[in-house]
Design goal:
This protein is of the alpha+beta class. The chain has a domain of 223 residues: Structural Genomics Hypothetical 15.5 Kd Protein In mrcA-pckA Intergenic Region, Chain A (Roll), CATH 3.10.290. 35% of the residues lie in helices and 16% in strands. The protein contains 15 helices and 13 strands. The strands form 4 sheets. Strands 5, 6, 7, 10, 11, 12 and 13 form a 7-stranded antiparallel β-sheet that branches. Strands 1-2 form a two-stranded antiparallel ribbon. A hairpin with a 5-residue loop joins strand 10 and strand 11. Helix 2 runs antiparallel to helix 6. It is globular. The N terminus is likely disordered.
């Protein structure tokens, strides 16, 4: 291994050393793999625990709020009158701290009334993304497989657990998805997979040409060349305009991403130190050589264990996340961590301030539900369920107007209302406020 804090990678069996990043961090000399002379291969000597296995001793209170920034007063009037909205469209849940983003996706679908019909992603706030990557493309590639998912069109792997069959109850099917234990059984979100993809890109595109076009300028700035390993995020995305870099890995548990407080400079420094140690411990160069060698693994399970053992654990970097769903309708949910409850050896729950949660309270009962059943529970909600393919939040408000404020003297308006109601019925939407216990 090199003595800087970035890993060496193997591409086409050639050793290449990337530019050093996250410098001046002391590293450990241990390795999570060692060479087995009997098997003539590198094998894991440290196996990370499977996410979601074992007892749940930590539960997060999350506030999920729909982005309604584009609504005007008329929209709000419709939502308050017909959508049971008091302040905003939101849900509060208690979720096991080890729930993965993948499982949380299905819970959000149930919470807001959607049916998993479109693409989605989770992302960090833009300012957190830029501080974490230092706005450098090379550092982003180093974080691929730890926080971020390298872009892929391997949809079979991306949707590795999409086993829904026509005729199944969609709500029952999704409930199984957000109920633990939480395990990732795909391939492309593993660290080694992402690092292979990232380094293949770095070696293929040694230099890029940046063209900062300004439609309003009379004279356009001159294009310039820059090494991809030296490029900023802005420069790289200027060239690779279709590349999506902000999507988070969905195999990650909430506890490795989100905390009660934003990331300050001290936390950022500690994070870099831990990541640098993780890069060194991963022994990435030897691991990729072993993983890509012909006939390395006799059984698929053996390969999965190898990939899993080489994942570098992430650490919390933010107090909020963003969930985007249906890029046409443009739904966005803000996810904020408001409290973290922990259970001691005597099964007593305490909140973030150390205050004990009374055993006979509704909160204590719901905490027990979330921990024992290994699934999130809804404890508060504002607003009725939404519906897919309605045109986003503005389209939803237009639908409420069509259904509830139809001109009863107009045959055309009545026909439009009847058509809308038939369509909504087919989508499973009834317009009633579902109880908290039935929401999830």
């Amino acid at each position: 291994m090199k003595t800087d804090n970035s890993a060496d990678f193997i591409s086409n069996k050639k050793k290449v050393a990337p530019v050093a990043a996250y410098k001046n961090v002391k590293k450990k000399t241990a390795s999570i793999t060692e060479f087995d002379p009997n098997r003539k291969k590198y094998v894991p000597v440290v196996k990370l625990p499977s996410v979601g296995m074992g007892l749940v001793t930590s539960v997060m209170k999350l506030h999920l709020e729909l982005n309604t920034d584009w609504l005007d007063e008329e929209d709000w009037r419709l939502l308050r009158k017909y959508g049971s909205v008091e302040k905003t469209i939101s849900r509060d849940i208690l979720a096991p701290a080890n729930i993965t983003l993948h499982a949380l996706h299905f819970a959000i679908q149930r919470l807001f009334g959607w049916q998993n019909s479109h693409l989605h992603n989770f992302s960090l706030p833009d300012e957190v993304f830029r501080r974490l990557t230092e706005n450098r493309f090379l550092i982003w590639t180093m974080l691929a497989g730890i926080y971020f998912r390298f872009p892929s069109e391997d949809f079979k792997d991306l949707y590795w657990d999409d086993d829904y069959k026509p005729g199944q109850g969609i709500k029952t099917w999704m409930k199984k998805k957000y109920t633990g234990p939480y395990e990732y059984k795909g391939r492309r979100e593993h660290y080694l997979y992402n690092q292979m993809e990232a380094w293949e890109m770095l070696t293929r595109w040694d230099e890029i040409t940046v063209r900062n076009l300004d439609p309003q300028a009379e004279e356009q700035p001159e294009p310039y060349n820059v090494k991809l390993s030296d490029a900023t995020m802005d420069e790289a995305l200027n060239v690779f305009m279709d590349m999506v870099c902000y999507e988070l890995l969905e195999r990650l548990p909430l506890s490795q991403l989100i905390s009660l407080h934003p990331m300050d400079e001290q936390k950022l420094s500690e994070l870099k130190e831990n990541l640098a140690a993780g890069w060194h411990l991963a022994n990435t160069e030897a691991a990729i050589q072993e993983w890509t060698a012909e006939h390395s693994f006799e059984f698929e399970k053996e390969e999965f264990e190898f990939l899993h053992a080489h994942n570098i654990p992430a650490l919390p970097v933010t107090d909020r996340l963003y969930y985007s769903y249906d890029y046409g309708d443009g739904w966005e949910v803000r996810i904020i961590c408001e409290n973290i409850y922990t259970k001691d050896s005597k099964a007593n729950w305490t909140d973030k301030d150390g205050n004990r949660v009374g055993g006979e309270t509704e909160l204590a009962r719901r905490l027990v539900d979330a921990a024992a059943k290994i699934r999130p529970v809804c404890i508060a909600k504002d607003g009725i369920e939404l519906v897919d393919d309605i045109g986003g939040i503005r389209g939803f408000c237009d639908m409420l107007r069509t259904v509830y404020e139809c001109d009863m003297d107009s045959d055309e308006a009545l026909d439009e209302r009847d058509d809308m109601l038939d369509w909504l019925h087919g989508m499973g939407w009834r317009g009633n406020l579902i109880s908290l216990r039935m929401t999830l």
